[in-house]
Amino acid sequence: MHAKIAAKEFNTESQITDYFKNTGDLYQSESAVIESIYQELLSVKTKVRSRDVILNLIDKLESENDVLQADIYRKALELVVSQGQ
């Protein structure tokens, strides 16, 4: 069964991570990836937007050789993109 996620605009990455923290175990791996990317970006930027996360996920997806990890990145990317629509 697929969970329906309400589409909404996120202006800050913290809004994205807060949203995924509230999804429980459903997107645990994706949530961890998004949080990690947020922390990584925050260490070099003062403001992190969803497009920054999207670009980072695309970079990770393109360079990932592990099929399972690539699937997690892909699903995380789908979730972040769907939140911006």
Automatic annotation (TrEMBL):
Domain of life: Bacteria
InterPro entries tied to this protein: AriR
GO biological process: cellular response to acidic pH
Protein name: Histidine kinase
Protein species of origin: Winslowiella iniecta
